[in-house]
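User
Please review the sequence:
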Amino acid sequence: MTHGLVALTGATGFVGRYVVEELVRQEIPVRVLVRSQTQADLLKGVEVCTGSLEDSESLARLVDGAETLIHCAGAIKAKNLKQFNEINVAGMKRLIKACVDASISRFIHISTMAAREPKISDYAASKRQGEHALHRHAGNMEWIILRPPVVYGPRDKATLPLIKMFLGKIAFIPGNSKSRISLIFVQDLARAIVVAATVKKFKSKITHELHDGSDDGYSWKQLATLAGESTGRKIWSYFLPKALCELVAIGISISSRLVGRTPMITRQKIDEIYHTDWVAKHFMFEEYFKWSAQTGFKDGFSKTVEWYRKEKWI
């Protein structure tokens, strides 16, 4: 089935690059929003629009003549709620307005599982408010919200510490022993996003939580066992006290501010990590879109480790 132009934000991010590759593989025309030509050089086979979520004029150019908008961009670290909101809420509203003005048919918003718990962190709160903006301002435009859980795979620096943690004989886990977590391999997520963007018909105004086929998610010990099976070793799990991780996060935050950087690990991020229930619950996507994940954690871990080693990241 042929498909009109797809406009995409966040194309140079971890997930966005895989979405671009999947769209190009399916020979679907793509226009991407990037901040600079240097970023554009990372991408092949796409039309480039230079700009940002802060610039309404560039957003209008991005969506002009497009049939579908995939919104992958967003702030994942910021100094405070105001900074998160500038991108995840105000930027979202500008993008929605541009899409409505351009008569875009379909809006696919890639949110996060964290939006389910808006009180847990400023990041989660801003992502939830971004979702609310779509509910309030989308008009007659078709839309769905996808909430991925932890996304991992080749090229990702954010989950590199997680992968490294499971390469030794003892995994020192910064998490709760009672926690259960859903995950998804990045290529499976990219396929799901493209399916949602290109399927002929779908039920609009629905939020879907995604996972890799494990309905009950994983405990940390299960993840350690699967990682050990993948590498041929037994891994012992040791859970770090939350208070210790909070102290480390405070130290990271202080040192980051001293050098003018925005820390990724904060006390609020520790609250997210130690939350006990990150299992996908609203899993209707498979039924509605005839999609299923192809990669469980054991295989995904193996593929990711292989890539990291090839690129000498580990």
In short: The radius of gyration is 19 Å. The first strand starts at residue 6 and ends at 9. The mean pLDDT is 94. Residues 6-153+183-215+279-293 form a domain with the Rossmann fold fold (CATH 3.40.50.720).
